[in-house]
């Protein structure tokens, strides 16, 4: 019983502050694909799911339809599905950085961040 009450308290706190996960680190080899899966279990169909890379919006799901922003860096290399999973193919060292998903769940903003590190055989700098 005490556990249930505690759980409600935690839910309440989460509700107040919104949902922000810790940054998840993802390591990928150059040339490979990576899927950033936010593991959203409670997707609201009418809500937008938005992905950013750094400061740029790169893709979003609107009413279940994936849309991609025009960004030469990711030309033809992004695949977004209805659940918000983002697949980046043919990874390049320049794809390293912070990817952030934002959506609304239960009227609260939900944020999930992935820190992608690309390991190349060579480091072009
Ligand atoms: C992402 O990972 C790199 C390499 O491990 C690290 O230097 C950087 O601080 C990380 N960035 C964030 C926002 O966690």
From TrEMBL:
<dbReference type="InterPro" id="IPR003599">
    <property type="entry name" value="Ig_sub"/>
</dbReference>
<keyword id="KW-0732">Signal</keyword>
<protein>
    <recommendedName>
        <fullName>Immunoglobulin domain-containing protein</fullName>
    </recommendedName>
</protein>
<dbReference type="InterPro" id="IPR013783">
    <property type="entry name" value="Ig-like_fold"/>
</dbReference>
<dbReference type="InterPro" id="IPR036179">
    <property type="entry name" value="Ig-like_dom_sf"/>
</dbReference>
<feature type="domain" description="Immunoglobulin">
    <location>
        <begin position="23"/>
        <end position="119"/>
    </location>
</feature>
<dbReference type="Pfam" id="PF07686">
    <property type="entry name" value="V-set"/>
</dbReference>
<feature type="signal peptide">
    <location>
        <begin position="1"/>
        <end position="22"/>
    </location>
</feature>
<dbReference type="InterPro" id="IPR013106">
    <property type="entry name" value="Ig_V-set"/>
</dbReference>
